[in-house]
Amino acid sequence: MKQLKQKRNNGYLIAATQSKYYYQSAIYLAESILDYYPEAKIALYTEEALFEEVHRDLFDHIDLETPSHARGKLWALPRTPYDKTVYIDADCEVKHEDIANIFDEMEDTGITLTKIRSYSGAQVKFNNGKDELEYHCGVFGYDRSTLEFMQDWWEEYCIQVTASPWPYEDDESLRPWDQYTFWRLLRWDKYKDIDIHIFKDDARWNFVNNYNDDEATGEVVIYHHTLNGEKVHEGSIKD
Fold this sequence. Notes:
alpha/beta
């Protein structure tokens, strides 16, 4: 008797905290994934105060204990229920059926990301231009071998945004950026051998709204909007 192939435990992770506007954007993202890939497994990490029961059927896994934190997504990353996970920022939209193939575009181990475009990022160069952030952390894939890294990313970011005085040699203007925390971790001896990869034709998988049209060779799969800061504040459950 022919043995059936076991289904791979791959899924998408979305996090939305602090603002109803982020939550609604996360719902729109989940719906756009399912429009192009109805069988997709999606995990939602959010707060109980934001969650609406009508959306439960969109998700394979729901965690309502996510901290009410601007980077609650970092807390969520090591808690993924999947063997291979694709994290997508809540302010993204899926626009192509190739979203179902993104796991095949990932390398077998480590973290697979897209690169920051220097003209696009809010802060790319630092230390008088000697150093720069390389990796965009808005869309990336990772496997279970990186979960300790993900936990350290969360813990180190919490230190970074609260530490006084500023404990690092690099510019203090980097304090709010989780990409900087990622950059720092890659310089730890503990993670010097971690596998870091870039998606082929990477802008297809994370096309930020101010990118030049020629950044992606193929059709855009994930389009990265920028949410209006005033609306995000208006929707805050902290107020």
